[in-house]
């Protein structure tokens, strides 16, 4: 192994340089997971994409983040070396995070939040500068830069940390990978708590919005800190020099072996121990042995993407599941920080005392089984959630709710033979479902007055009909706020200002953070009136009627359109706990296994191979979710659990036949053979020289 190093200072038996690497990883993971924590919510609530599109884009981004490690590994092992690769791509990474923050500033892009119209303007624009200013385009550029940066440095940082240890520090190196993974989840824990809080703030220059610029800006700042910390430790690092374009050599070796085997396929040629041995006519034994080692591990990686297909749904399907539940907390990073040291210091030693040979591949197998179990738990929770969710109208159906904001009772009759309902003063009905094609008109009777209205409503949606008996019966289709006063009013709720409401008119719906109260203020004839709202439950929707003002206190009536979520997020703890246990025994072990089984000149490449399984896993999510066509989310969870269980069994069989190798020992043997060959060549040369001198 060729390396550049100074006499490394140590601390508690560990190279001091690894502490810079761990701090760097903590900051980088804070940056990545902080941005990712709000990404699917950004897609759903800011861009107003549906659940399936949000999930698809999210997993496409994650897949790209784990495809680019191949590029980073090639650059590190073949050209720049790990240190320069980390520095260079960290700069790209930091720029990407900054671009995401800038692109989410609503005032610079889409003033009206009309994303669809704004995107249309972007595509027809002939100005490249104007195109770059388009909100979604700039966001996608930011995500691509982040994917290049985070993916490019992924295989390098852990392998670079492993390079800091000497061959006789195997125990310290093993413990380093556990600490390294702990730093990942410490950064993840803080970021997944902090960035949603930052997102919940209201900010903006001309118009208020959820503060995505701050939620993306803080991770960008942490990425800059990560880069600075890493550079500060430069003088202490042991830097392994790149040893040529090893991937091209390996590819050529494999290609020649296949071609040579095909040429000598007849029975007259004797078989060789391994099909790669057919490359021995052109390539040296060392390269062939290294290629065998890498291919043996990569073959073992084939079933692993299925684990990541389930694991990374924490950030998509499980996050969306949480939006239909009551409560607000983060659990996975907390469990990881607890479980990593517990498993490392308690569980593994206990298993060893029981004389169970818990090999790395057995740990990975157990991790896959536990992940499958976690999705069974998620399916059980989803079944309970589905029982509490409102039933929305299908295509061709319309749901109607009636609110009586008058002083007299009212009877609402839909065209015969459809439904008829009686509604008392200041009360409302539940949603009634009708076939849209049969909804022609509605008759309203209140007191001694009667009125009729023609109905022209789109199918597949919900509508609220407000009725009032004044001088005449008035009926209107409404949403969030209803002005039940004779005067024009201006309404503000929290930091959100609504449009001016004429008498008996209504505002549009708006989104507010759940689980809290907000101040409602109405300006009536230049007089401010206010009231503190009731607690807005998670997932709920209300129509609020403004009835009057008494002593500067606003008189309001609430009509519940959608009930608050009743299944608490605490029910997600079992699935997160099981998946966390799976992650600890699967992912930490996988990082160490990939490093320990890789030849010295291909450690980053094999780390990239491990990370590539994550990318393929996210692609599997897109394929399975798109192909299954399951209407029930719990059924999709069960499908993924069953697929992983089947893959787990296949992997267990493959692992049973795997033989562990020590790349350092193999390379030492080749070094010894090369020394003997050099010595032999020198002896021959000396003898030939003596013979010539005697002539």
Task: Give an overview of the whole structure.
- Strands 7, 10, 11, 14 and 15 form a 5-stranded mixed sheet that branches.
- The chain is an alpha+beta fold and 695 residues long.
- It contains 19 helices and 22 strands.
- Beta-strand residue percentage: 5-15%
Give helix % range: 55-70%
Regions with pLDDT < 50 over 5+ consecutive residues? Answer: 1-7, 109-133
Measured between the Cα atoms of the first and last residue, the distance is 43 Å
Shape summary: elongated
- How would a textbook summarize the main sheet? 5 strands, mixed
Tally of individual helices: 19
The whole-number mean of residue pLDDT values reads 82
Structural class: alpha+beta
The total count of strands amounts to: 22
Q: Compute the gyration radius: what is it?
A: 32 Å
Family: Belongs to the major facilitator superfamily. Proton-dependent oligopeptide transporter (POT/PTR) (TC 2.A.17) family.
InterPro entries: MFS_trans_sf, POT_fam, PTR2_symporter_CS
Pfam families: PTR2
Subcellular location: Apical cell membrane; Cell membrane; Membrane
Give a concise summary.
This protein is an alpha+beta fold and 695 residues long.
Write the layout of secondary structure elements.
Elements: E1 3-4, E2 10-11, E3 14-15, H1 17-37, H2 39-46, H3 51-67, H4 69-103, H5 115-124, H6 128-133, H7 135-163, H8 170-200, E4 202-203, E5 209-210, H9 212-232, E6 239-240, H10 246-263, H11 285-301, H12 305-311, H13 317-322, H14 332-353, H15 360-388, E7 397-404, E8 410-414, E9 420-423, E10 427-428, E11 432-435, E12 441-446, E13 449-454, E14 461-469, E15 473-478, E16 481-483, E17 489-493, E18 496-497, E19 519-524, E20 527-532, E21 541-550, E22 553-562, H16 573-596, H17 603-628, H18 633-656, H19 663-694
Parallel strand pairs: 7-14, 16-21
Antiparallel strand pairs: 1-6, 2-3, 4-5, 7-10, 7-11, 8-9, 8-12, 12-13, 14-15, 17-18, 17-19, 19-20, 21-22
